[in-house]
Every structure is written in C-alpha cells, then in structure tokens.
C-alpha cells in the first residue's frame, strides 16, 4: 500500500512537471529568429533615371532569351532587408526593357516599382504594389535572385551585395 502511494505521488508530480513544461513550450515563439512584428516594406522614393548607368551583364542560362543586366550604381540593400536595383532586359532585336525591381531574398518574393520611359528619360511607377512569390516559371527572375542572393538570404552588407553581383557577372 505504501509503495502504491509513493508511485501515485511520483506520477502526480511527473504529470505536473510535464504540464508546466508543455505550457512553457506553447508560450515560446516557434522560431527564435522570427521578428515580433510582421515584415513592413520600407517606402523609398524612386531614384533618378539612370543617365550614367553601370550595367553589369549577368551570366544567364540558355532558357533565358534576353540579355540581362543590373545597374551596379542603383544597387541598394534597404533597411527592410530587400535588395533594390535597376534591371535591363535587352531582346535579340535590340529592344530595351528597363525596370526598377525589388527582391526579398529570404521570402523569395519580387516587386516591380517602376518602368523606364526611355524616350522621356523618366520612371513610370508600377500600379502593382504587392510582392509576388517567385515560382519556377520565371527563369529570368530566378536567375536574378540567385545572382544577388546566392544563399537565399539577404546579404548582410552592401559590400556583400556588390560582391554577389560581381560573382554573377558574365565572363567575356
């Protein structure tokens, strides 16, 4: 009888300890690196039109038809941990398509901020303000994010970002 009472006491104590531990675990954040608040995009004004752009051509897979360039002078690592830059796509017939882009490396999302009016030398703001998840259908955007964020994480500094672009540059 005394043994049974001791066993019941031990089981009750273990049950209480388990309940206390379970409560502590449930109150803990699921990911200790996850911020307390939701990510908020940093509002930045559109930069000046790239009159003296320093276009760096990316080494792209054969499935990407246009030649792809990033203006190294426009490359920004924003405080919201996004990468922003001017992107130039040059078709085989010589037509330029220039846009201001943003990439959220960790989330693998992309947003176009503006498109170039190459005649008027100005930016036209994009009407789409949402960030879109990169899927496997855009080899061009997949190539760009891999060039700027090879580790699928935002670069830690502007210097690291510039080095990522240099590493992705097409070798001639």
Assess the beta-strand content as a share of residues.
15-25%
Structural class: alpha+beta
Report the major sheet. 8 strands, antiparallel
Radius of gyration: 25 Å
Helix content: 25-40%
- Mean pLDDT, all residues: 82
Overall number of strands: 8
DSSP summary: helix tally: 3
| Quaternary status | single chain
List SSEs in N-to-C order. Answer: HEEEEEEEEHH
Shape, please? globular
Q: List unreliable stretches of 5+ residues.
A: 24-33
End-to-end C-alpha gap = 88 Å
Could you please describe the fold and organization of this structure?
The chain has 172 residues and is an alpha+beta fold. The protein has three helices and eight strands, in the order αββββββββαα. The chain has helices at residues 2-27, 139-148, 158-168, and strands at residues 55-57, 67-71, 76-77, 83-90, 96-104, 109-117, 122-125, 132-133. Strands 1, 2, 3, 4, 5, 6, 7 and 8 form an eight-stranded antiparallel sheet that branches. Strand 5 (96-104) and strand 6 form a beta hairpin. The longest helix is centred in the first third of the chain and has 26 residues, at 2-27. It is globular and about 95 Å long. The model is unreliable at 24-33 (pLDDT under 50).
């Amino acid at each position: 009888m005394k043994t049974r009472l001791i066993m019941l006491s031990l089981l009750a104590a273990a049950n209480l300890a388990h309940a206390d531990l379970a409560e502590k675990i449930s109150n803990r954040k699921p990911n200790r690196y996850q911020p307390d608040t939701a990510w908020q995009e940093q509002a930045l004004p559109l930069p000046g039109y790239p009159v003296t752009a320093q276009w760096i051509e990316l080494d792209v897979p054969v499935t990407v038809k246009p030649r792809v360039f990033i203006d190294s002078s426009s490359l920004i690592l924003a405080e919201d941990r996004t990468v922003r830059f001017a992107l130039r796509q040059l078709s085989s017939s010589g037509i330029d398509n220039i846009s201001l882009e943003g990439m959220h490396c960790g989330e693998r999302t992309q947003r176009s901020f503006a498109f170039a009016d190459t005649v008027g030398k100005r930016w036209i703001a994009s009407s789409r303000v949402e960030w879109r998840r990169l899927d496997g259908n855009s080899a061009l955007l997949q190539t760009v994010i891999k060039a700027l964020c090879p580790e699928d994480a935002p670069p830690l500094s502007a210097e690291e970002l510039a080095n990522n672009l240099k590493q992705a540059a097409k070798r001639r």
